[in-house]
């Protein structure tokens, strides 16, 4: 891993040495500006906290689908991710979580690391389903305990305005789970109450939530006014660049997610998102009625899109690596420093992926 290395202290020109344990043993080099040479960029591996699938497979498909998805996304620089579920009946969701739990136990060779699960539904508002199936539910402590026991839930998306959900937020936070507000018709006041209860994020900001209006500020205004962290899909289809710029000015650690579907990394065609049939065409994924249904975004493209709207490379890198890792409370991923996992992406000068390392293993090597 040689080149212009982005460290927490800034750019250096040098080399990363990984130890046999898959962690960074040392970084050798000298401070340097990438503009003054033509060497490749070495960035922290990308961390994706909302990902439904890729390579033709969905995380709801079962344990055998997981290695396919992890290998599909590592090709684009994602070195760790959360497997995201879809709104489903209890008798479908529980076994799906149990399968994901088994898949989390060990990283397949040549693949990204699955860090845990993002439960996106069923605890959402039926009036803001987006592409989620119409099987939403109000959370109960008893059902949630089953899910918490079935898989390592790291993030849960819910609609805070549903009855009892403020208490559910407190329960989840006490168990170390990050709670995000999304797929919601809640008001600004609902959002503030949820943040006071311990919620800490917003799921795909701007999408599937009440918009900002000057007399009804909604969820979006609550995020812009109060959030330290929020996720956003920067495929430039889900959110206009101008709205992204506004969020960047307001939310200190705004970060990218892909919301990728089975169609990510695949040709145009018919795929599935949980139980929904979706269609990939011209760079988007939609339901039959034209509703956006997740994306085909990959994290390397998210990085390039951030750069294309004016972010410098170091700032863009933080929003695909460091900030999502920090949101999960991880201090050993999302940055290149001694003792961290040796997760790194080597990009050429056009910001195209050349080499990807996961925990010291070279998983991708492009000519």
TrEMBL record:
<keyword id="KW-0378">Hydrolase</keyword>
<feature type="binding site">
    <location>
        <position position="131"/>
    </location>
    <ligand>
        <name>substrate</name>
    </ligand>
</feature>
<dbReference type="GO" id="GO:0008448">
    <property type="term" value="F:N-acetylglucosamine-6-phosphate deacetylase activity"/>
</dbReference>
<feature type="binding site">
    <location>
        <position position="120"/>
    </location>
    <ligand>
        <name>Zn(2+)</name>
    </ligand>
</feature>
<dbReference type="InterPro" id="IPR006680">
    <property type="entry name" value="Amidohydro-rel"/>
</dbReference>
<dbReference type="InterPro" id="IPR003764">
    <property type="entry name" value="GlcNAc_6-P_deAcase"/>
</dbReference>
<dbReference type="GO" id="GO:0046872">
    <property type="term" value="F:metal ion binding"/>
</dbReference>
<comment type="similarity">
    <text>Belongs to the metallo-dependent hydrolases superfamily. NagA family.</text>
</comment>
<feature type="domain" description="Amidohydrolase-related">
    <location>
        <begin position="41"/>
        <end position="360"/>
    </location>
</feature>
<feature type="binding site">
    <location>
        <position position="183"/>
    </location>
    <ligand>
        <name>Zn(2+)</name>
    </ligand>
</feature>
<protein>
    <submittedName>
        <fullName>N-acetylglucosamine-6-phosphate deacetylase</fullName>
        <ecNumber>3.5.1.25</ecNumber>
    </submittedName>
</protein>
<feature type="binding site">
    <location>
        <begin position="292"/>
        <end position="294"/>
    </location>
    <ligand>
        <name>substrate</name>
    </ligand>
</feature>
<dbReference type="GO" id="GO:0006046">
    <property type="term" value="P:N-acetylglucosamine catabolic process"/>
</dbReference>
<feature type="binding site">
    <location>
        <position position="204"/>
    </location>
    <ligand>
        <name>Zn(2+)</name>
    </ligand>
</feature>
<dbReference type="Pfam" id="PF01979">
    <property type="entry name" value="Amidohydro_1"/>
</dbReference>
<feature type="active site" description="Proton donor/acceptor">
    <location>
        <position position="259"/>
    </location>
</feature>
<dbReference type="InterPro" id="IPR011059">
    <property type="entry name" value="Metal-dep_hydrolase_composite"/>
</dbReference>
<feature type="binding site">
    <location>
        <position position="238"/>
    </location>
    <ligand>
        <name>substrate</name>
    </ligand>
</feature>
<keyword id="KW-0119">Carbohydrate metabolism</keyword>
<feature type="binding site">
    <location>
        <begin position="207"/>
        <end position="208"/>
    </location>
    <ligand>
        <name>substrate</name>
    </ligand>
</feature>
<dbReference type="InterPro" id="IPR032466">
    <property type="entry name" value="Metal_Hydrolase"/>
</dbReference>
<keyword id="KW-0479">Metal-binding</keyword>
<feature type="binding site">
    <location>
        <position position="215"/>
    </location>
    <ligand>
        <name>substrate</name>
    </ligand>
</feature>
